[in-house]
From TrEMBL:
It comes from the Bacteria. Pfam families: Mpo1-like (PF06127). This is Mpo1-like protein. InterPro entries: Mpo1-like. The chain crosses the membrane at residues 43-60, 66-85. Keywords: Membrane, Transmembrane, Transmembrane helix.
Length: 118
C-alpha cells in the first residue's frame, strides 16, 4: 500500500489502497502525490519517452523485441524511481490500468510544463 499524509494527525501517514478510487479522475491526484520526488518523475519521464520510441520501432519494423524493450524501460525506470527515490510501492501493482494511463498523463503534463522535473 502507498502512504499519504493524514490531515488529522500532523506527521502521520495512513495507508491508501489505490483500489478505493472509483474513477481515473479520483485516482490521478493520488497518482501525482505518489510521484512528488523530482528524480522519480524524471525517471518516469525518461522511461515513458524510451517506451514511446520503442513502440514506434515496433510499428515500423514489426520486431517484437521492441515491445519487450519498451515494457522493460517503462516499468524499469518507474520502479527504480519508486523504490530508490520515492520510497513507496508503485500503484501499478494494484491499479495497473489507471497507473498506465496516469503515467502517460503525467508525461503529457511534464511536456506541457504543468508538472516540473525540478
Amino acid at each position: 500500500m502507498s502512504r499519504t499524509s493524514d490531515p488529522g494527525v500532523p506527521g502521520a501517514a495512513t495507508p491508501v489502497d489505490p483500489r478505493q478510487f472509483k474513477s481515473f479522475a479520483e485516482f490521478y491526484p493520488f497518482y501525482l502525490r505518489e510521484h512528488s520526488n523530482a528524480m522519480c518523475r524524471r525517471l518516469h519521464f525518461v522511461g515513458t519517452s524510451l517506451s514511446l520510441l520503442f513502440l514506434i520501432g515496433l510499428v515500423v519494423t514489426g520486431h517484437l523485441w521492441y515491445l519487450i524493450a519498451g515494457l522493460a524501460c517503462g516499468y524499469g525506470f518507474a520502479w527504480v524511481g519508486h523504490f530508490a527515490f520515492e520510497k513507496n510501492r508503485p500503484a501499478s501493482f494494484k491499479r495497473p490500468l489507471y497507473s498506465f494511463i496516469g503515467d502517460w498523463m503525467m508525461w503529457r503534463d511534464i511536456l506541457l510544463g504543468r508538472i516540473s522535473l525540478h
